[in-house]
Design brief:
The structure holds two protein chains of two kinds.
Chain A lengths: L17 E6 L16 H19 L3 E4 L9 H10 L4 E8 L9 E6 L5 H8 L8 H4 L6 H9 L6 H19 L3 E7 L2 H4 L5 E8 L3 H7 L2 H21 L2
Parallel strand pairs in A: 1-2, 1-3, 3-6, 4-5
Antiparallel strand pairs in A: 4-6
Helix pairs in contact in A: 1-9, 6-9
Chain B lengths: L1 H45 L13 E9 L6 E9 L4 H14 L15 E6 L4 E6 L11 H18 L5 E6 L27
Parallel strand pairs in B: 4-5
Antiparallel strand pairs in B: 1-2, 3-4
Helix pairs in contact in B: 2-3
The chains are: A alpha/beta, B alpha+beta.
Chain lengths: ~240, ~200
Protein backbone atom coordinates (compact mmCIF):
# COMPACT_ATOMS: atom_id res chain seq x y z
CA UNK A 1 0.00 0.00 0.00
CA UNK A 2 2.94 2.30 0.67
CA UNK A 3 5.57 1.29 -1.85
CA UNK A 4 8.99 2.47 -0.79
CA UNK A 5 11.64 3.10 -3.36
CA UNK A 6 14.56 5.35 -4.16
CA UNK A 7 16.38 7.17 -1.38
CA UNK A 8 13.95 6.15 1.29
CA UNK A 9 13.66 2.52 0.23
CA UNK A 10 15.12 1.37 3.49
CA UNK A 11 13.09 3.65 5.70
CA UNK A 12 11.20 1.27 7.93
CA UNK A 13 9.78 3.61 10.53
CA UNK A 14 6.27 2.19 10.79
CA UNK A 15 4.96 5.37 12.37
CA UNK A 16 5.60 7.51 9.32
CA UNK A 17 2.96 7.14 6.64
CA UNK A 18 2.15 10.75 5.94
CA UNK A 19 4.21 13.89 5.44
CA UNK A 20 2.46 17.21 5.85
CA UNK A 21 3.90 20.17 3.96
CA UNK A 22 2.85 23.66 5.01
CA UNK A 23 3.30 26.41 2.42
CA UNK A 24 3.64 29.52 4.59
CA UNK A 25 1.02 32.31 4.49
CA UNK A 26 -1.59 32.53 1.67
CA UNK A 27 -4.63 34.53 0.58
CA UNK A 28 -4.89 37.94 2.21
CA UNK A 29 -1.86 37.15 4.29
CA UNK A 30 1.00 37.62 1.85
CA UNK A 31 3.94 37.19 4.20
CA UNK A 32 7.13 39.08 3.37
CA UNK A 33 7.41 41.09 0.15
CA UNK A 34 10.31 41.53 -2.22
CA UNK A 35 11.47 44.74 -3.82
CA UNK A 36 10.45 43.40 -7.25
CA UNK A 37 6.98 42.58 -6.01
CA UNK A 38 7.38 38.88 -5.34
CA UNK A 39 5.33 37.60 -2.40
CA UNK A 40 6.40 35.04 0.15
CA UNK A 41 3.07 33.19 -0.12
CA UNK A 42 3.58 32.44 -3.84
CA UNK A 43 7.13 31.20 -3.45
CA UNK A 44 6.30 28.95 -0.49
CA UNK A 45 3.48 27.33 -2.49
CA UNK A 46 5.69 26.75 -5.54
CA UNK A 47 8.41 25.07 -3.48
CA UNK A 48 5.86 23.01 -1.54
CA UNK A 49 4.26 21.64 -4.72
CA UNK A 50 7.68 20.61 -6.03
CA UNK A 51 8.54 18.93 -2.73
CA UNK A 52 5.21 17.08 -2.72
CA UNK A 53 5.88 15.74 -6.20
CA UNK A 54 9.37 14.55 -5.23
CA UNK A 55 8.22 12.75 -2.10
CA UNK A 56 5.30 11.08 -3.85
CA UNK A 57 7.46 9.98 -6.74
CA UNK A 58 10.38 8.58 -4.79
CA UNK A 59 9.14 7.74 -1.32
CA UNK A 60 5.54 6.76 -1.83
CA UNK A 61 4.33 8.41 1.34
CA UNK A 62 1.04 10.18 1.39
CA UNK A 63 1.70 13.90 1.19
CA UNK A 64 -0.85 16.38 2.51
CA UNK A 65 -0.55 20.10 1.89
CA UNK A 66 -2.08 22.57 4.36
CA UNK A 67 -3.04 24.56 1.24
CA UNK A 68 -2.64 23.77 -2.46
CA UNK A 69 -3.64 27.17 -3.80
CA UNK A 70 -3.70 30.82 -2.83
CA UNK A 71 -6.09 30.78 0.13
CA UNK A 72 -6.07 31.94 3.73
CA UNK A 73 -5.43 29.16 6.22
CA UNK A 74 -5.40 29.86 9.94
CA UNK A 75 -2.32 28.78 11.84
CA UNK A 76 -4.50 26.54 14.00
CA UNK A 77 -5.76 24.69 10.93
CA UNK A 78 -2.22 24.10 9.71
CA UNK A 79 -1.23 22.13 12.79
CA UNK A 80 -4.68 20.52 12.90
CA UNK A 81 -4.13 19.23 9.36
CA UNK A 82 -0.94 17.56 10.54
CA UNK A 83 -2.54 16.02 13.62
CA UNK A 84 -5.75 14.92 11.90
CA UNK A 85 -3.76 13.10 9.23
CA UNK A 86 -1.48 11.58 11.88
CA UNK A 87 1.49 13.16 10.14
CA UNK A 88 4.87 11.53 10.66
CA UNK A 89 6.74 14.67 9.65
CA UNK A 90 5.73 18.31 9.28
CA UNK A 91 7.64 20.77 7.09
CA UNK A 92 6.64 24.42 7.03
CA UNK A 93 8.13 26.31 4.10
CA UNK A 94 8.87 30.03 4.20
CA UNK A 95 10.93 32.75 2.54
CA UNK A 96 12.60 35.07 4.99
CA UNK A 97 12.25 38.82 5.33
CA UNK A 98 14.45 41.29 7.19
CA UNK A 99 14.52 45.05 7.44
CA UNK A 100 18.19 44.91 6.45
CA UNK A 101 18.48 44.57 2.67
CA UNK A 102 21.78 42.71 2.98
CA UNK A 103 20.44 39.91 5.17
CA UNK A 104 20.89 36.68 3.22
CA UNK A 105 21.05 32.92 3.48
CA UNK A 106 19.03 29.88 4.42
CA UNK A 107 18.17 28.57 7.86
CA UNK A 108 16.04 25.85 9.42
CA UNK A 109 14.11 26.37 12.64
CA UNK A 110 12.66 24.07 15.23
CA UNK A 111 10.51 25.15 18.14
CA UNK A 112 11.65 26.90 21.28
CA UNK A 113 8.95 27.18 23.85
CA UNK A 114 8.48 29.85 26.49
CA UNK A 115 6.82 27.33 28.75
CA UNK A 116 5.94 28.25 32.32
CA UNK A 117 7.14 26.00 35.13
CA UNK A 118 3.64 24.65 35.57
CA UNK A 119 3.32 23.83 31.90
CA UNK A 120 6.71 22.18 31.94
CA UNK A 121 5.62 19.95 34.81
CA UNK A 122 2.44 19.00 33.01
CA UNK A 123 4.41 18.14 29.94
CA UNK A 124 7.02 16.11 31.71
CA UNK A 125 5.00 12.93 31.42
CA UNK A 126 4.63 13.35 27.69
CA UNK A 127 8.34 13.34 27.06
CA UNK A 128 8.61 9.73 26.14
CA UNK A 129 9.38 9.64 22.47
CA UNK A 130 8.64 6.01 21.80
CA UNK A 131 4.87 6.08 22.15
CA UNK A 132 2.23 7.82 20.12
CA UNK A 133 1.28 11.14 21.67
CA UNK A 134 -2.38 10.55 20.97
CA UNK A 135 -2.45 7.54 23.25
CA UNK A 136 -0.59 9.39 25.97
CA UNK A 137 -3.04 12.27 26.22
CA UNK A 138 -5.77 10.85 28.40
CA UNK A 139 -9.06 11.66 26.66
CA UNK A 140 -10.81 11.85 30.04
CA UNK A 141 -8.71 14.88 31.00
CA UNK A 142 -10.71 18.04 31.38
CA UNK A 143 -11.00 20.32 28.36
CA UNK A 144 -8.59 22.97 29.58
CA UNK A 145 -5.85 20.46 30.24
CA UNK A 146 -6.47 18.81 26.86
CA UNK A 147 -6.19 22.22 25.21
CA UNK A 148 -2.93 23.00 26.95
CA UNK A 149 -1.43 19.61 26.14
CA UNK A 150 -2.40 19.73 22.48
CA UNK A 151 -1.34 23.33 22.20
CA UNK A 152 2.11 22.29 23.35
CA UNK A 153 2.27 18.97 21.57
CA UNK A 154 5.50 19.83 19.80
CA UNK A 155 7.34 19.80 23.10
CA UNK A 156 7.35 16.01 23.05
CA UNK A 157 9.23 15.99 19.73
CA UNK A 158 11.89 18.64 20.21
CA UNK A 159 14.80 16.22 19.98
CA UNK A 160 13.65 14.67 16.71
CA UNK A 161 12.76 18.07 15.31
CA UNK A 162 16.24 19.33 16.10
CA UNK A 163 17.77 16.32 14.30
CA UNK A 164 15.47 16.81 11.30
CA UNK A 165 16.38 20.52 11.17
CA UNK A 166 20.06 19.68 11.18
CA UNK A 167 19.78 17.18 8.33
CA UNK A 168 17.61 19.47 6.20
CA UNK A 169 19.88 22.44 6.80
CA UNK A 170 22.99 20.42 5.81
CA UNK A 171 21.40 19.66 2.45
CA UNK A 172 20.26 23.25 1.91
CA UNK A 173 23.81 24.36 2.59
CA UNK A 174 25.22 21.80 0.19
CA UNK A 175 22.80 22.53 -2.66
CA UNK A 176 21.88 26.21 -2.62
CA UNK A 177 25.20 28.02 -2.56
CA UNK A 178 23.69 30.63 -0.25
CA UNK A 179 24.97 31.68 3.15
CA UNK A 180 24.45 28.98 5.76
CA UNK A 181 22.68 30.52 8.73
CA UNK A 182 22.45 27.15 10.46
CA UNK A 183 19.70 25.69 12.61
CA UNK A 184 17.90 27.88 15.12
CA UNK A 185 15.14 27.72 17.67
CA UNK A 186 12.27 30.19 17.73
CA UNK A 187 8.74 30.27 19.22
CA UNK A 188 6.95 29.93 15.88
CA UNK A 189 3.20 29.59 16.26
CA UNK A 190 2.73 27.09 13.45
CA UNK A 191 5.02 24.56 15.14
CA UNK A 192 3.67 24.63 18.70
CA UNK A 193 0.68 22.34 18.21
CA UNK A 194 2.18 19.81 15.79
CA UNK A 195 2.35 16.30 17.26
CA UNK A 196 5.28 14.95 15.22
CA UNK A 197 8.82 16.06 14.31
CA UNK A 198 8.41 19.50 12.73
CA UNK A 199 10.67 22.12 11.18
CA UNK A 200 10.28 25.48 9.48
CA UNK A 201 12.56 26.12 6.52
CA UNK A 202 13.53 29.66 5.52
CA UNK A 203 14.84 29.03 2.02
CA UNK A 204 16.38 32.48 1.41
CA UNK A 205 15.58 36.17 1.93
CA UNK A 206 12.90 37.66 -0.29
CA UNK A 207 13.88 41.04 1.19
CA UNK A 208 17.31 40.71 -0.40
CA UNK A 209 17.05 41.68 -4.11
CA UNK A 210 19.54 39.03 -5.28
CA UNK A 211 17.91 36.26 -3.29
CA UNK A 212 14.43 37.45 -4.28
CA UNK A 213 15.27 36.79 -7.91
CA UNK A 214 16.61 33.37 -7.03
CA UNK A 215 13.52 32.52 -5.02
CA UNK A 216 11.29 33.53 -7.93
CA UNK A 217 13.11 31.22 -10.35
CA UNK A 218 11.83 27.71 -10.91
CA UNK A 219 15.38 26.32 -10.91
CA UNK A 220 16.15 27.58 -7.41
CA UNK A 221 12.75 26.46 -6.13
CA UNK A 222 13.50 22.96 -7.42
CA UNK A 223 16.85 22.98 -5.64
CA UNK A 224 15.23 23.97 -2.37
CA UNK A 225 12.67 21.18 -2.76
CA UNK A 226 15.38 18.64 -3.56
CA UNK A 227 17.51 19.72 -0.61
CA UNK A 228 14.58 19.35 1.79
CA UNK A 229 13.73 15.99 0.23
CA UNK A 230 17.27 14.75 0.77
CA UNK A 231 17.23 15.94 4.37
CA UNK A 232 13.96 14.06 4.96
CA UNK A 233 15.36 10.92 3.37
CA UNK A 234 18.45 11.04 5.58
CA UNK A 235 16.28 11.54 8.63
CA UNK A 236 14.13 8.55 7.71
CA UNK A 237 17.15 6.35 7.09
CA UNK A 238 18.69 7.33 10.42
CA UNK A 239 15.44 6.38 12.16
CA UNK A 240 15.10 2.92 10.73
CA UNK B 1 -50.95 104.46 25.81
CA UNK B 2 -47.56 104.27 24.41
CA UNK B 3 -46.18 103.09 27.68
CA UNK B 4 -49.02 100.59 28.02
CA UNK B 5 -48.30 99.18 24.62
CA UNK B 6 -44.62 99.13 25.41
CA UNK B 7 -45.35 97.20 28.59
CA UNK B 8 -47.65 94.80 26.83
CA UNK B 9 -45.07 94.00 24.19
CA UNK B 10 -42.03 93.92 26.39
CA UNK B 11 -43.63 91.56 28.92
CA UNK B 12 -43.77 88.42 26.76
CA UNK B 13 -40.61 89.51 24.95
CA UNK B 14 -38.72 89.69 28.24
CA UNK B 15 -40.12 86.32 29.31
CA UNK B 16 -39.15 84.83 25.98
CA UNK B 17 -35.64 86.18 26.06
CA UNK B 18 -35.14 85.01 29.66
CA UNK B 19 -36.41 81.58 28.66
CA UNK B 20 -34.12 81.65 25.65
CA UNK B 21 -31.15 82.61 27.79
CA UNK B 22 -31.86 79.85 30.27
CA UNK B 23 -32.19 77.36 27.44
CA UNK B 24 -28.96 78.57 25.88
CA UNK B 25 -27.18 78.35 29.21
CA UNK B 26 -28.47 74.79 29.67
CA UNK B 27 -27.33 73.81 26.20
CA UNK B 28 -23.90 75.34 26.77
CA UNK B 29 -23.53 73.62 30.13
CA UNK B 30 -24.69 70.32 28.66
CA UNK B 31 -22.25 70.29 25.78
CA UNK B 32 -19.33 72.06 27.40
CA UNK B 33 -19.73 70.07 30.60
CA UNK B 34 -20.17 66.71 28.85
CA UNK B 35 -17.46 67.40 26.33
CA UNK B 36 -15.12 68.51 29.05
CA UNK B 37 -15.64 65.32 30.91
CA UNK B 38 -14.95 63.26 27.78
CA UNK B 39 -11.74 65.12 27.14
CA UNK B 40 -10.70 64.62 30.72
CA UNK B 41 -11.32 60.88 30.62
CA UNK B 42 -9.44 60.56 27.37
CA UNK B 43 -6.57 62.53 28.86
CA UNK B 44 -6.39 60.25 31.88
CA UNK B 45 -5.98 57.14 29.78
CA UNK B 46 -4.04 58.15 26.76
CA UNK B 47 -2.23 61.46 26.92
CA UNK B 48 1.39 61.51 27.96
CA UNK B 49 1.86 62.13 31.63
CA UNK B 50 2.51 65.77 32.55
CA UNK B 51 6.12 66.61 33.30
CA UNK B 52 6.89 65.66 36.86
CA UNK B 53 9.19 68.53 37.65
CA UNK B 54 7.79 71.81 38.79
CA UNK B 55 11.03 73.72 38.82
CA UNK B 56 14.55 72.40 39.29
CA UNK B 57 16.35 70.15 36.80
CA UNK B 58 14.12 67.54 35.11
CA UNK B 59 14.63 64.06 36.55
CA UNK B 60 15.84 61.66 33.88
CA UNK B 61 17.16 58.14 33.73
CA UNK B 62 19.27 56.32 31.20
CA UNK B 63 17.83 53.26 29.47
CA UNK B 64 19.30 50.84 26.95
CA UNK B 65 17.33 50.36 23.74
CA UNK B 66 17.78 47.44 21.33
CA UNK B 67 17.95 48.29 17.63
CA UNK B 68 18.97 46.44 14.48
CA UNK B 69 21.92 47.39 12.27
CA UNK B 70 22.50 47.25 8.53
CA UNK B 71 25.62 45.13 8.67
CA UNK B 72 24.40 42.09 10.62
CA UNK B 73 21.31 40.32 11.98
CA UNK B 74 21.86 41.17 15.64
CA UNK B 75 20.29 43.57 18.08
CA UNK B 76 22.51 46.48 19.10
CA UNK B 77 22.37 48.47 22.32
CA UNK B 78 21.94 52.23 22.39
CA UNK B 79 21.69 54.41 25.51
CA UNK B 80 18.95 57.00 25.80
CA UNK B 81 17.89 59.56 28.40
CA UNK B 82 14.18 59.46 29.19
CA UNK B 83 12.11 61.41 31.71
CA UNK B 84 12.02 59.60 35.03
CA UNK B 85 8.99 58.43 37.02
CA UNK B 86 6.52 58.52 38.46
CA UNK B 87 6.15 54.76 37.94
CA UNK B 88 8.28 52.18 36.17
CA UNK B 89 5.37 51.50 33.83
CA UNK B 90 5.50 55.16 32.76
CA UNK B 91 9.21 54.88 32.12
CA UNK B 92 8.76 51.61 30.25
CA UNK B 93 6.19 53.31 28.04
CA UNK B 94 8.68 56.11 27.27
CA UNK B 95 11.48 53.66 26.57
CA UNK B 96 9.33 51.76 24.06
CA UNK B 97 8.17 54.99 22.44
CA UNK B 98 11.83 55.94 22.02
CA UNK B 99 12.46 52.49 20.53
CA UNK B 100 9.75 53.06 17.93
CA UNK B 101 10.98 56.58 17.15
CA UNK B 102 14.34 55.14 16.23
CA UNK B 103 18.05 55.40 16.73
CA UNK B 104 20.11 58.54 17.17
CA UNK B 105 23.25 56.70 16.11
CA UNK B 106 22.42 55.29 12.70
CA UNK B 107 20.83 52.06 13.90
CA UNK B 108 17.33 51.03 12.78
CA UNK B 109 14.13 50.39 14.73
CA UNK B 110 12.63 46.97 13.93
CA UNK B 111 9.13 48.30 14.68
CA UNK B 112 6.88 49.95 12.07
CA UNK B 113 7.32 53.75 12.50
CA UNK B 114 3.57 54.47 12.88
CA UNK B 115 3.35 52.18 15.91
CA UNK B 116 2.04 53.77 19.10
CA UNK B 117 2.62 52.39 22.56
CA UNK B 118 -0.87 52.53 24.01
CA UNK B 119 -0.02 51.29 27.48
CA UNK B 120 2.43 49.31 29.55
CA UNK B 121 1.26 47.48 32.64
CA UNK B 122 3.62 45.74 35.02
CA UNK B 123 2.05 43.08 37.22
CA UNK B 124 3.43 41.94 40.55
CA UNK B 125 4.36 38.53 39.19
CA UNK B 126 6.92 40.20 36.89
CA UNK B 127 4.88 40.03 33.69
CA UNK B 128 4.86 43.30 31.74
CA UNK B 129 1.99 43.65 29.30
CA UNK B 130 2.56 45.99 26.38
CA UNK B 131 -0.37 47.21 24.33
CA UNK B 132 0.55 48.49 20.87
CA UNK B 133 -1.64 50.22 18.28
CA UNK B 134 -2.66 48.09 15.28
CA UNK B 135 0.18 49.61 13.25
CA UNK B 136 2.61 47.22 14.92
CA UNK B 137 1.03 44.32 13.07
CA UNK B 138 -0.96 45.53 10.10
CA UNK B 139 0.46 46.56 6.75
CA UNK B 140 4.01 45.58 7.66
CA UNK B 141 5.40 42.70 5.58
CA UNK B 142 7.11 40.71 8.32
CA UNK B 143 9.44 37.84 7.54
CA UNK B 144 10.63 35.52 10.30
CA UNK B 145 13.77 37.58 10.87
CA UNK B 146 12.09 40.98 11.04
CA UNK B 147 9.31 39.61 13.23
CA UNK B 148 11.75 38.03 15.68
CA UNK B 149 13.73 41.29 15.75
CA UNK B 150 10.60 43.35 16.48
CA UNK B 151 9.43 41.07 19.29
CA UNK B 152 12.80 40.69 20.99
CA UNK B 153 13.73 44.37 20.68
CA UNK B 154 10.64 45.07 22.79
CA UNK B 155 11.10 42.17 25.21
CA UNK B 156 14.82 42.78 25.73
CA UNK B 157 14.33 46.54 26.20
CA UNK B 158 11.80 45.96 28.98
CA UNK B 159 13.52 43.14 30.86
CA UNK B 160 17.00 44.67 30.55
CA UNK B 161 16.01 48.07 31.96
CA UNK B 162 13.21 47.44 34.42
CA UNK B 163 14.06 45.23 37.36
CA UNK B 164 10.53 44.08 38.22
CA UNK B 165 9.98 42.82 34.65
CA UNK B 166 10.83 39.17 34.07
CA UNK B 167 8.58 38.33 31.11
CA UNK B 168 6.64 40.28 28.52
CA UNK B 169 3.23 39.80 26.89
CA UNK B 170 2.38 41.70 23.69
CA UNK B 171 -1.15 42.90 22.92
CA UNK B 172 -2.45 44.74 19.87
CA UNK B 173 -5.26 47.30 20.40
CA UNK B 174 -5.92 45.86 23.81
CA UNK B 175 -6.49 42.33 22.57
CA UNK B 176 -4.53 39.10 22.33
CA UNK B 177 -3.27 38.29 18.87
CA UNK B 178 -1.82 35.05 17.49
CA UNK B 179 1.22 36.63 15.79
CA UNK B 180 2.34 40.00 14.44
CA UNK B 181 2.87 38.71 10.91
CA UNK B 182 2.31 34.96 10.81
CA UNK B 183 5.40 33.67 12.57
CA UNK B 184 6.18 34.37 16.23
CA UNK B 185 3.70 33.02 18.79
CA UNK B 186 2.31 35.84 20.94
CA UNK B 187 0.11 33.61 23.10
CA UNK B 188 2.77 33.11 25.78
CA UNK B 189 4.88 35.55 27.72
CA UNK B 190 8.39 36.02 26.35
CA UNK B 191 11.61 35.72 28.28
CA UNK B 192 14.37 37.96 26.90
CA UNK B 193 16.80 36.50 24.38
CA UNK B 194 20.21 38.06 24.73
CA UNK B 195 21.78 35.60 22.30
CA UNK B 196 20.41 37.91 19.57
CA UNK B 197 22.40 40.86 20.94
CA UNK B 198 25.74 42.00 19.51
CA UNK B 199 28.60 41.97 22.01
Amino acid sequence: MFPLSGLAADAQDPAIRTVVIDPGHGGMETGAKGRFGNLEKDITLAISLKLKALIEKDMGFEVVLTRDRDVDVSIENRSATANNHKAGLFISIHANGAVQRKAAGSETFFLSLNATDEETRRLAYLENNSTDLQSRIDPSSDDDLMMILWDMAQNAYIKQSSRLAELVQNELDAMLGTRNRGIKQAPFRVLTGVACPAVLVEAAFISNPDEEQKLASSGFQTKVAEAIYRGLARYLRANE
Amino acid sequence: MASKRKGKISGPALLLSILGLVLLALVVIFFAGGGGEKVKRFADANLPKPPETAGGPAATRTVTLFFIADGDDLLHKESREIAAGPTEADEAERALTALVQGSEQGLVSPLPPQTRVRQVFIARDGVATVDFSRDVAEGFPYGSSSELAAVYAVVNTLVYNFKPVKKVVLLVEGAERETLGGHVDLSRAFFPDYSLVAR
